[in-house]
Specification:
12-stranded antiparallel beta sheet, globular, single chain, alpha+beta
Length: 258
Amino acid sequence: MNGIRPDNTYEEDYTVPSYMADRSFHLRPSSFMDMAQEIAHSAASHFHFGWDDLQLHHTAWVISRMHFKFIRPPKWRDEVALFTWHKCIDGPFYIRDFELRHQGDLNFEDSSGALITCTSSWIVMNMQTRTFARDEEIMRMVPESTQCHRDAIEEHCKKVVPPKDAERFASHKIMYGDVDFLGHTNNARYIAWSMDSIGYEITSEHQVKDVRINFNKETKPGDEVELFRSHIKTEGQDTWFIEGKLDGKSCFCTQIDF
């Protein structure tokens, strides 16, 4: 099935392609984010607050925070269904959740069936002034009647705070392959850079369990982002923090648990 369900969730079915899989045949974290961003726009469009609707007001959706859990990540050729729904408004944030399941698994009361769960926080930005847009006309476009109050992840994504002893690891110059149609870095690229910063010997041999990311400042072609990393290992958990900085200011920060 593809489209809106009676409970205001939106569903799209996929067969995981090879170009979204890693060495272990599992879906990459950055590939999941690509899927999530696309279905978010599709769902919003069906409720008439998508890209084209907001462009009439010189505004656009901008993701601010995201948290997802890889419970049983799918593999290449798996047939899966991705669900998303507009959950609520929390201060300046519009909260959107996601859940990835095998196709046909609609028992949402059974959380053990979820492959990936996710919550995300979005703002509406005025593309001319680059500031928050919270006027009444925009608020009316996203009515409470479009919400579904089910939790994929109950707690909204909080600020990621890296340790103070992070080391400068590398830098990345933003080029054609990093940039989306808005002219700034595609958000999924920050996760790809983070995984690269952790190192292939770790990311190719260990399964990601949990990803949190904050998007703090947009970056554009030609910018050179400095990448800082830190590592905390405890019993049963391996945590990496990756922060990108431009001119000394944080562009993004990720926390990735293995």
